[in-house]
# Entry
Amino acid sequence: MSLRQFISSRIFLRSFNIVKDNAVLRWREVAALFGLHDDVYYNPLHKKIQKPVHAILIGAGHRGTIYASYASKYPKELKIVGVADVNPQRRKKTATEHKIPVGHCFTDWKDVFALEKFADAVIIATPDYLHTQPCLAALDAGYDILLEKPIAPTEEECRIILQKAKDTNRIVGVCHVLRYSPYFRELKEVLDAGLIGDIISVQHMEPIEHVHMSHSYVRGKWKSSKKSTPIILAKSCHDTDIIRWLVNSPVHDVHCFGNLRWFTNINAPKGSTERCTDGCKVESSCPYSALQIYYRDHKRLYVFDLPEDKRKWDELILQQLKTTDYGRCVYRMDNDQPDHLTVNILFENGVTSAFSMEAHVSYEGRRTRIMGSKGDIIGDMETFVLTDFKTRKQIKWKLKTDAHGGGDLSLVKDWVQAVAQQNKNLLSSTIEVSVESHLIAFGAERSRLNRTIEDIRI
Ligand SMILES: NC(=O)c1ccc[n+]([C@@H]2O[C@H](COP(=O)([O-])OP(=O)(O)OC[C@H]3O[C@@H](n4cnc5c(N)ncnc54)[C@H](O)[C@@H]3O)[C@@H](O)[C@H]2O)c1
# Structure
């Protein structure tokens, strides 16, 4: 009897009867009730690593530093033996942290490949527009890869990388960090075990939170869809991947509506100025005041490379607000990313999904509703509630985690295992499926711009 059949039988129903209404359970308790894995990260194929995987970090910024921190925590599994970054401060910091010899510190990614192969793998965490070239060069040089999402900014480049990965037969792990959050892992376990029967449809919402939107997609690195990538790819390729992963079926069609409704010149309040530091008359009442966000509240400062000595911060932050995009008025930027969009997806197995990305919200944390043939699930990345249609009994599961649900280092762990054992199956996603999840996003953007329904074919 399969796990699915086992759970569908009376044992499943009996389990429901013993759950008290409104009880909030930890995953271990939920798992014990339904006979599921109590440790969703347990993988019997993981082995003790004999020799640490040697990796070169290309792009030692915000994300690259997080992935490289795995080496500091688990030095017997991963060692960072080279770094490339155009920013000398970041390069130096990584070199010091990981004791990288001067000869293996590079100003540009290209310099890495001018040398003979000197590591097992590379971690590519450069900006979106700089993924394809280092990835292809690394595959040609025989490296395995951990590649930040998005794989590449265009569909054509994604397909070229897919083909090269197949031709060279190397491991390319894409950073689908949400798949590694306990929340989505446990949700997936529940769905795969058939606890709500067959999936009929999925509603999924990504609330970006309005200040986060202003920071990254109005003022920040992704404000231009042309210079970086469309927001549906930059921000929501995590979601197109998660939805496809939960539904577990290839995609058939995609449709999207969306536009930039609020962060435009026309909405600039009277009395506002080019920069928040220019004596703006409405600064004190504006929810997007850069002085409030960065200078007074000290939020999202990681973009400024501030020194450890906090005494200098006020002066340095003010200087950044006077000279960089982070100090500019959100209504007077050269941004073009939509601040709201809705995507409809039809899967080959008939499941439909409605996804919406929303900037004008006061909260973060994905919201997901999954409708099944025997029950449904309502979740918000901290809690999910499963209701059985027959018994009306509910089970609530709760766990508080960080924005990525604690997935970053679990992802690195699987990738390190995959490289050490040279076994692609240890990754949560194949490069084919990762590319397909990107095709949903590219299709959605074409649909939004051309008012079409897009056929998705890998
Ligand atoms: N998985 C996720 O959840 C997630 C979250 C945020 C960002 N990202 C992605 O991660 C990537 C990096 O984003 P980030 O926020 O860390 O950006 P970042 O700007 O903090 O880091 C990028 C680094 O690349 C370096 N760089 C630029 N040009 C280079 C070159 N020619 N050679 C070597 N290094 C170079 C920059 O100096 C910078 O330090 C982006 O593609 C982004 O979309 C993924």
Q: What stands out?
A: The chain is about 35% helix and 20% strand. Residues 431-450 form the longest helix (20 residues). The mean pLDDT is 93. Residues 58-64, 84-87, 90, 108-109, 125-128, 130, 148-149, 175, 177, 234, 404 surround nicotinamide-adenine-dinucleotide (CB under 6 Å).
